[in-house]
Structures are given as structure tokens and as C-alpha cells.
Amino acid sequence: MMVVTLSDIAHAAGVTKATVSMALRDKGRISPETRSRIKQLAREMKYRPNQIARCLTVGHSSFVGVVVAPVIFPMFNQVIQPIERRLQEAGYSMLLYSSADTHEGQIVCMEQLLQHRVNGVIIISGSAFEDAAGCIDLIEAGVKLVVLNRAMPGLEVPQIVCDDYAITRKAVEYIVSLGHRRIAHLTMPTNSFSGRERTRGFNDAMNDAGIEVDPALVIETGITYESGAEKMESLLNLPHHPTAVVTRHDSVAMGVISSILAAGLSVPDDISVIGNGDILQGDVLKVPLTTLHHPMGRMTVAGVGKLIDLLEERPVEAKTEILDTELIVRSSCGPPKAE
To answer: 211-263, pLDDT tens digit by residue?
Structure first.
């Protein structure tokens, strides 16, 4: 099938190519009758604008990049679809980037964003962008940026995040209230702001409860099911394994539970496990997962609104908004077994 061009429409309408271009973009001094006739012809001829060619002509595009990691995809309906729908309503097209949680993945993703000449970017936690340094090239290229659910201090853009310090503090306080004292922490790397805040929240809650933090029970881990399973196996090999495990993410928690069950132990009778994120429909899992719920729906609606305001050159304050999380109690936590 032949691709319909502006020249084809101009020939059919008996006008110039420039007139067709202005009519389809609602620009220029063109009579309403001519504009309507050109748009009708474009529909009948099934004209589709070449966005890439337009991008090369004007130097930017109507594309918005949304950068996520694979762990976000269980929340597709809650996070990605509302962003895409709102962008479409505002006249923008979404390009979805799934990035590895590595520095190399960050570099590749950033290059792709710049090559595609996106006009704006939304970065969602769990993506490869762990700190402000990875975003500098985007900002210097004039790309509008909003960050969701992962604080990046020093980055002068709108950010909407959850309180990382409160996340682990709240988890530990709940575990301690059940009677646990030998508590493990599968945490984020402390080379990121979020990782340091999570560690600080864990340590403060333990200290306030009069419990000494055992370094052997604090392990940096990735954000995957496999990471959780592997780290839990090492904890089970200790002379005295923990009676409770606080994890950085629900996917990690599910890996932890799999290793506990594979070892012939029970959750929560032998070991309690608490997740973070509430992204895996924890209430329908084999062991319903106690976790911290992040208000991702509210966060994404607000975030995409801020990005559209930036793209439309409306004033937006470059500040960080901090939202609270909610403890969702299910069946993966209980009192420690009596010795």
C-alpha cells in the first residue's frame, strides 16, 4: 500500500503542500472551509503524519519517554496505562523504555532517549537511573524531566517520592511489635540516596527497640526474585538464622519465601517476611505477603500532570514531594516461634 504524503493531499485538494501542512496543524491564515476540506481529505486518504521526519525538521518531538525496570510491569494497569492515556489526551505519544538496574543500562537508556529526541521523560523507581548524574545529559539537552518514587537529591526537577526512611522504620516497628529480635535486612545498595535512607530507617528502628543490628543479617541485594532467593539461602546457612526478614521489594520477598519453603520451613511459623511496594497482588499469593503499599496511582497522575505542564511551558516548582506508605498486613508475618 502506498504511503500517502502531504503532496498527495495537496494535489487532491488543489492547494499547496504548505497549505496542507498548516491546515493539519491548525496553523496559518486558512479559511475554515478549506481547513475542514483538507482534514476530511486526509481522513479519507488515510494520511498518517511522519513523526520522525517532523522531529528531524523541528528539532524536537511529541514523544515522551517513560523509563521503568521490569519489576514495574506487574503494575502496568496501575502505573503505565494512566500515564499513556493522559499523555495521549494532551497530544503526546509515549515511548516505553525497560532498563536494566545497572550503570551500563543507564548509559544505554539515556542514549536511546536522546537519539529518539524525546521532549520529556518520566523516570520511575527501579529503573537504571539511580542518581542525578545519569540525568544531566537529558537536562542539558533541554529534555523536561519528572522523577517518581526514587529521590535524587541535587536534581532540580519535580520529584514525587515515598519516604524511604519511614518505609524500613515502619516495617521494623511492626516486626518488633510481633516479638522478633533477630531481624535480617535485604537492603538496597547504600551508594544511592534511597539505599542510605532505608538503612538509616532500619538502624534507627532497631536501636529504638533496644536491638543491636547484626552485620551478618544486613545484606545488599538486587531487586529480583532470584536475588532474594539467593540471599535467603545464605541466611539459612548461618548457625542461627533470622526469625524475620525485611526486604527492599516484593519481588525480593517472594524469592525469600521460596528459599524458606524449599528448606522445609514455614512462613510465618518459622520465619516472617515483609515486602515493599505491594505490586504483586500479595493477597492472592500462596503466602499472602505483608508489605508496604506505595500510592503509585496518585503519584503517577500527579507526575504526568507536572510533566505536561513543563512541556506546555506552564510554571512548575522543582521540588520534592514526599508521600507516605501504608502497612498492609496479610499472612507472611507472625510471632516468632517459642524456643
So the answer is: 999 999 999 998 889 999 999 999 999 999 999 999 999 989 999 999 999 99
Backbone torsions φ then ψ of 17, nearest 5 degrees:
-60, -40
Beta strand residue intervals within 108-158, DSSP E: 120-124, 144-148
Domains belonging to the chain, first-starting first, are 6-49 (1.10.260.40), 63-162+295-325 (3.40.50.2300), 164-293 (3.40.50.2300)
Query: What does pTM read for this prediction?
Result: 0.78
Cell numbers for 162 = 515515598
If you ran DSSP here, which 8-state letter would residue 4 be given? P
CB atoms inside a 10 Å sphere around CB 286: 11
CA distance 75 to 94: 17
Name the strands in the sheet holding 93-98, side by side, starting at the edge strand that comes first in the sequence: 93-98, 63-68, 120-124, 144-148, 159-162, 320-323
